[in-house]
Amino acid sequence: MAKKISILIVDDEESVRDSLYSWFIEDGYRVECAENARKALTILESDQFDIVLADIKMPGMDGLEMLRRIKAHKKDSIVIVMTAFATVDTAVKALKDGAFDYITKPFDPDDLTHLIRNATKQISLVDENETLKKKVVSLENVEDLIGTSEAMKNVLREVESVAQTNSSVIITGESGTGKELVARAIHANSPRKFFPFVSVHCGALTESLLESELFGHEKGAFTGAMYNRKGRFEMADSGSIFLDEIATISNKMQVELLRVLESKTFIRVGGNKEITSDFRVICATNKDLKGLVEKGTFREDLFYRLNVVNIHIPPLRERMADIPLLVDYFIQKYCTSMNKPPVAIDPGALKRLQEFSFPGNIRELENMIERAIVVGDGRKIGLKDLPLEKTIVNSSAESLDDFERAFILQILIKYSWNISRTAKALKVDRVTLYNKIKKYDLKPADQQ
Amino acid sequence: MSLQNITLISFGYFEKDILEKIAEVVKLEFRSSLNLKEGHIDLSEYYDPGRRQYNGNKLLKHVDGLPLAESGKSLGLFSVDLFIPILTYIFGQAFLGGRSGIASLYRLNNTSYGMKTDSKLLQTRFTKEVIHELGHTFGLIHCNQPTCVMRSSTYVEDIDQKGHSLCHHCRKEIGLV
């Protein structure tokens, strides 16, 4: 027996308790007895049992009342009821109240053995189901959110803990950091995962379009509204709605949104029927919402309604350690989608990627890799395939020295560290270039 | 290594040599000394007219209280139909890790199922049941090995399927290996 099954016997007759106790002990189960329902409920408060075998007819609280209380406390408990006075009515009542099975005293030994065997089978199926669910959840996490850096691990931990709740979430982070992916991961790991995940890009819609998009509209509500249309809140019933770029919505829409969030009811544009929808709100923004509240452009009440949990995604430049993993992921993704054999990346090119500041974050890295696979030779991604040189100077230069260092490095890379050609391009002599290289401690990527 | 002394106490009538043959097998199985004794009891005190059977719990307590049960293990052998309050019948029962047990051949006999009696089969079944209940007194629980005598049996057919010996694991559990 892989797991020692535990059984709680509840019967007011001592001889019955003793007989069942001896029978189950010989089968290797962990067994405890209670002489009445109250005592059984007290035992169940401090200890867990896989199976409760209870008599229906007992003085004080009867077995059916106890069954209801156990089920109210723990829905998936296995309770088997037994009685000496079998009637169809009692059996049906017990089963309707959630009893696993019903048995009439005295039992045939074989019936009892089969009954317990079926119950243990049910227990192992439930356990197996839970284990598989956990496996599926962890796979969804790993697949969507790439990164092993401490910053990313924190995000994953937050996603995991917030997913099981129903609280509103605001995801903050720079553009291209993967806010929608995080929102999808929250939904995919939540109890709502089998219902829709509806995404709305608030910034891309005008006020009237957004209103119609969120709440839906009735036929004839405005010019061109030829048919009734469901809104996104209605579509997200039992699931999650993701409102991207929430900071861009107008004041009027903020008021409307607050009302919907409070009551979970709304009326379609041009309609008069109140519609109820059970959805979870996940918002995202790359703006400082609190700053907007202080400036008075974002409603404070809506901010606090939405900001129950805040998940901040760090920019890519703060988790450079994740770049090799992300590069591998995107290479695999685009080689597969373009039907190309997997390509490698030159270590020098990878190193340069890790030095780059990525103002466009992961989206920029993804585009770079996609482009490199398209324009590359199909074997290896090299520096020449990456559009790093044009942008590097602008992205990281903070002083004249930084600018000079980055510019010289850029030209050195362009001419593959050929000093004469680089010096000629920079219109300086070789000695000056050597001095600059020494001053800025410049080295080819493969010597670092 | 040998285990504690075993006493088989027969209550009621048994065929002449069946008990001696069983005693021989049991002795070998547990590698212990074995006494075969006759017990005397008024079975009517244990009879339940409503069920027309004999109360196994009370009989077990009686055997457990016998003075000769104080040293080693004792098993009461009966030829009447046994029950316990919660079950329609039992072949036998024992105190797990205790001193005593009981076993009955009533439901092991083919005649209980409308078939012709088979003395050899009856003896084999009874031997298995006696070893099974004694196994419980040595602290063994039911075993999943199909051929082990400690496998749970609720029908006589189940008893026929298993062997009359303890499996290696059960032997090891009680220090016979």
Q: How would you characterize the overall build of this protein?
A:
The complex is a heterodimer of chains A (448) and B (177). In chain A, 50% of the residues lie in helices and 14% in strands. Chain A has 19 helices and 16 strands. In chain A, the strands form five sheets. A five-stranded parallel sheet of chain A has the order 2-1-3-4-5, sandwiched between helices. Chain A has a five-stranded parallel sheet with strand order 7-10-13-6-14. In chain A, a hairpin with a 6-residue loop joins β11 (265-267) and β12 (274-276). In chain A, α5 packs antiparallel against α7. Chain A is elongated and about 105 Å long. Chain B is of the alpha/beta class. Chain B has helices spanning 18-30, 56-65, 119-137, 156-161, 168-173, and strands at residues 6-11, 34-39, 47-48, 53-55, 73-78, 82-84, 87-90, 92-94, 100-104. Chain B is globular. The N and C termini of chain B lie close together (8 Å). The A-B interface holds A 1, 13, 15-16, 18-20, 22-23, 25-28, 105-110, 112-113 and B 51, 57, 83-90, 93, 95-96, 136, 141-142, 144, 152, 154-155.
Biggest sheet of chain A: strands, sense, closure?
5 strands, parallel
SS strand fraction of chain B? 15-25%
The chain-level structural class of chain A is alpha/beta
Distance between the termini of chain A: 59 Å
Write the layout of secondary structure elements.
The complex is a heterodimer of chains A (448) and B (177).
Chain A (H helix, E strand, L loop, with lengths): L5 E5 L3 H13 L3 E5 L2 H10 L4 E5 L7 H11 L4 E6 L4 H9 L4 E4 L4 H36 L5 H14 L5 E4 L6 H10 L8 E5 L5 H9 E2 L11 E2 L1 H4 L4 E5 L6 H13 L1 E3 L6 E3 L3 E6 L3 H7 L4 H7 L2 E4 L10 H15 L6 E2 L1 H9 L5 H15 L4 E2 L7 H8 L3 H15 L4 H8 L3 H10 L9
Parallel strand pairs in A: 1-2, 1-3, 3-4, 4-5, 6-13, 6-14, 7-10, 10-13, 15-16
Antiparallel strand pairs in A: 8-9, 11-12
Chain B lengths: L5 E6 L6 H13 L3 E6 L7 E2 L4 E3 H10 L7 E6 L3 E3 L2 E4 L1 E3 L5 E5 L14 H19 L18 H6 L6 H6 L4
Helix pairs in contact in B: 1-3
